[in-house]
Design a protein that fits this description.
Blueprint (H helix, E strand, L loop, with lengths): L11 H12 L1 H17 L3 H7 L1 H33 L10 H18 L3 E8 L2 H8 L1 H18 L5 E6 L2 E7 L3 H17 L7 E8 L8 H17 L5 E3 L1
Parallel strand pairs: 4-5
Antiparallel strand pairs: 1-3, 1-4, 2-3
Helix pairs in contact: 1-4, 6-7, 7-8
Length: 242
């Protein structure tokens, strides 16, 4: 599944390169000091530099390694923090905030290129009863099972997220209504297969019409929610499309 860009910030490797570039200020500063000393004493700067080649090499290599390593570590830490800010801690999927960002991006992209976009809203059936009867640990396990079903049933280009509580979302770019229903049925089947006892889900599917404006992205979620409500009303453990 496509997790999307975490942020526009520099990756660790770029930070490391910038650190290596900044590190060159150390030998540069040493050269300035030598130039000033030589100007005051009348000593030849070229001769002094030739005599201090090992010093310059040590300062350049050591500071480059230190700054590059520090830049890499800072980049990795920032990348991890960004990932945590966009990830649901229980399931490892994108969280709602990240999903809303991707929904706006995908709706705008599909409108621009005239391609469909399907939204699949998944609700775990009877999660409250499961929590009440067997405890929240069992309910959390059910949520993780459904998240696994989303991963196994989705394609590489699909975007899966936990919408909140017992609801999940899959954004399916370039996916028509019938294709969205087929994808939803795979997810529904995988949910029952991957858990014991079987966990059923109700699913609503809505497809973005390329002739509509990108601002209709939130309306698409409303339509998917309406389809999900109908699936619940009809007895749960089914897929309904609008």
């Amino acid at each position: 599944m496509d997790p999307g860009p975490l942020t526009r910030a520099r990756p660790p490797l770029v930070n490391a390169v910038w650190g290596a570039v900044l590190a060159q200020g150390a030998p540069g500063g040493l050269w300035v000091l030598d130039a000033v000393r030589c100007a005051r004493s009348g000593e030849s700067l070229a001769a002094r530099l030739a005599a201090e080649v090992p010093v310059y090499a040590y300062v350049s290599v050591s500071t480059t390694l230190a700054f590059a390593s520090f830049g890499w570590l800072l980049g990795r830490r920032a990348e991890r923090l960004r990932e945590l800010a966009r990830t649901d801690p229980l399931t490892g999927l994108l969280n709602r905030r990240a999903c809303e960002e991707r929904l706006e991006e995908e709706a705008a992209r599909r409108e621009r290129y005239g391609l469909p976009l399907s939204v699949i809203l998944v609700d775990v059936d009877g999660l409250k009863a499961l929590n009440d009867q067997h405890g929240h640990r069992c309910g959390d396990a059910a949520l993780r099972h459904v998240a696994s079903a989303l991963r196994s049933g989705s394609r590489q280009t699909d975007i899966a997220a936990r919408w909140g509580g017992d609801e999940f979302v899959v954004l399916a770019p370039a996916t028509s209504g019938p294709e969205g229903v087929e994808l939803a049925e795979r997810i529904r089947a995988a949910s029952a297969l991957l858990s014991s006892p079987p966990v059923t889900v109700s699913i609503g599917v809505a497809t973005f019409d390329p002739t509509r404006r990108a601002a209709a992205a939130r309306g698409l979620m409303f339509e998917a929610d309406r389809a999900l409500y109908e699936a619940k009303r009809l007895g749960r453990n089914r897929v309904v499309a609008v």
